């Protein structure tokens, strides 16, 4: 019995050591940057190492030039701008967009409460819960968060409603960290999306371009009247 307990203890120590090494690797690994050249100006973002599936997929699509020529097809003021639908490249002005894909999805990589939908983050779009209960991400469509500012009281109510709907009082996935609260109060974001959509990067430069796009005139389907395109994406260091 004693030798068995010792063996279990050693396995536990090994598992914790491997987990710590993995976390250290993520924190020390250099983050990949991407330049998005749009018809409205340039945007520079970094991809989080903590969400490797989404990071690697985005890098693959950038290298394949998948995003070049695509529209920001869905824009909502004080919320977000969305792009990445392959069908938008040649779509006519009255074409409904948002259903285009690359033939696969990405498993969710929720990292809340450490990573959340603060102002300027980039996250993966996805199908709704009814057809996608696992909340898997689109293989190509993404959105950049603009959002708005919240009060502590609003965040309290939102946290309570999310825990009641999705989790329990001990589930940190739907709780806001101290830093998240400060960010949502001081710079804004879309906190109601935390724990439901995967955040995988953030904007380093060019949020003025994102804000400009978020305020353009749109039709009843939230598609900009004026075509706003991604001219090119490329990896940078």
Q: Can you tell me about this structure?
A:
- It is built from 5 helices and 10 strands; from the N terminus they run αββαββββββααβαβ.
- It has 237 residues and is an alpha+beta fold.
- The relative contact order is 0.22.
- The protein has a single domain (33-236), classed as Cyclophilin.
- It has helices spanning 2-28, 52-63, 152-166, 178-186, 207-214, and strands spanning 33-38, 41-47, 72-76, 80-83, 105-106, 121-124, 137-138, 142-145, 199-205, 230-236.
- It has an 8-stranded antiparallel β-sheet with strand order 3-4-8-6-9-2-1-10. Strands 5-7 form a two-stranded antiparallel ribbon.
What structural keywords apply?
10 strands; disordered N terminus; globular; 237 residues; alpha+beta; two-stranded antiparallel sheet; Cyclophilin; 8-stranded antiparallel sheet
SSE arrangement:
Elements: H1 2-28, E1 33-38, E2 41-47, H2 52-63, E3 72-76, E4 80-83, E5 105-106, E6 121-124, E7 137-138, E8 142-145, H3 152-166, H4 178-186, E9 199-205, H5 207-214, E10 230-236
Antiparallel strand pairs: 1-2, 1-10, 2-9, 3-4, 4-8, 5-7, 6-8, 6-9
Poorly predicted ranges = 1-27
CATH topology: Cyclophilin
Question: How far do the termini sit from each other?
Answer: 55 Å
- Taking all Cα atoms into account, the compactness measure Rg is 20 Å
How many distinct domains? 1
Looking at the overall shape, the CATH architecture is Beta Barrel
Question: Helical amount among residues, as a percent range?
Answer: 25-40%
CATH structural class: Mainly Beta
Widest β-sheet, arrangement of strands: 3-4-8-6-9-2-1-10
Largest sheet: 8 strands, antiparallel
Taking all residues together, what is the mean pLDDT?
89
Give the amount of beta strand, in percent.
15-25%
Q: Order of helices and strands, N to C?
A: HEEHEEEEEEHHEHE
Provide the structure class.
alpha+beta
CATH superfamily: Cyclophilin-like
Query: What's the β-strand tally?
Result: 10
Categorize the overall geometry. Answer: globular
The count of helical stretches stands at 5
